[in-house]
Design goal:
Length: 266
């Protein structure tokens, strides 16, 4: 069997990583994917580093057992806490995601940026070092939110079969953003893959000229580059296939839930 045509594994603490999967499906139309939705352990941001590492190890073993040729950690928290140790432990390409702060400041020449992410992501040394490397410590505002990913997850799982606008999500965003003068913020960086579902809300809340960016596009570009360098891209005639697995109470319905969210929200 040609291992080039093996699946790429993607996992996240819930359905948030579907934003990355959707990007990957478009950018890599001949690749197949296995998505693991770890709904049972949402949110990773409330767990210790040791717990996040152990959870990630178990999921990666699960994906390797299904012959995945590369793995994407579609979770900023797990990337910041565990990616380096995971790469040391497993002899398979492991691609992580991180807040696209560099893109905001280097490419967009942002003057004032707001990074919205989980508390764990924002307090990790990896994030602090990134700000210092770019030289944007004084112009980058951070907004940790421990509950937002859960609110988004609950809404999407409950309404996966048709698009529903959530007043609860809108009200929550208005509340946490109320401490900032949004007219002075020219870029909002989304530091959690769940936040990729917030476009309809940002369109209502943020000034129309505000840039909103996340790390999904850059992560998929890097994934493609790694596969090219290692001669691991699927054959051009390979037909894309997507399989879904999950944990927790939604595991039995994970296929229809994830496909419904991809169709109705992305």
């Amino acid at each position: 069997m040609n291992k080039k045509n093996n699946s790429i594994g993607i996992f996240d603490s819930g359905v948030g990583g579907l934003t990355v999967l959707s990007e990957a499906m478009r950018a890599l139309p001949n690749e197949s994917f296995i998505y693991f939705c770890d709904h049972d352990n949402l949110p990773y941001g409330s767990k210790s580093g040791e717990e996040i590492l152990k959870i990630s190890e178990n999921i990666i073993r699960f994906l390797i057992e299904r012959d995945c040729k590369a793995i994407v950690i579609a979770c900023n928290t797990a990337t910041s806490v565990a990616s380096e140790k995971l790469r040391e432990e497993f002899k398979i390409p492991i691609i992580g995601i991180e807040p696209a702060v560099k893109k905001a400041f280097v490419k967009n020449q942002s003057k004032e940026t707001l990074v919205l992410a989980t508390p764990v992501t924002l307090k990790e040394e990896k994030f602090k070092n990134l700000l210092e490397e770019i030289g944007c410590v004084d112009t980058c505002h951070i907004l940790p939110s421990e509950d937002l990913a859960n609110i988004i997850e609950d809404h999407l799982v409950s309404n996966f079969d048709h698009f529903v606008y959530s007043e609860k999500i809108e009200d929550y965003l208005k509340k946490i953003l109320s401490d900032f003068d949004l007219n002075k913020i020219d870029t909002v960086v989304l530091g959690c893959t769940h936040y990729g579902f917030l476009s309809p809300y940002f369109n209502k809340i943020l000034p129309s000229d505000t840039n909103v960016i996340d790390g999904g596009y850059g992560t998929v570009r890097y994934l493609k580059r790694v596969l090219e360098e290692k001669d691991m891209l699927a054959d051009s005639e390979s037909i894309q296939k997507i399989d879904f697995f999950g944990s927790g109470e939604i595991a039995d319905d994970i296929d229809k839930i994830c496909r419904g969210i991809l169709e109705n929200y992305l």
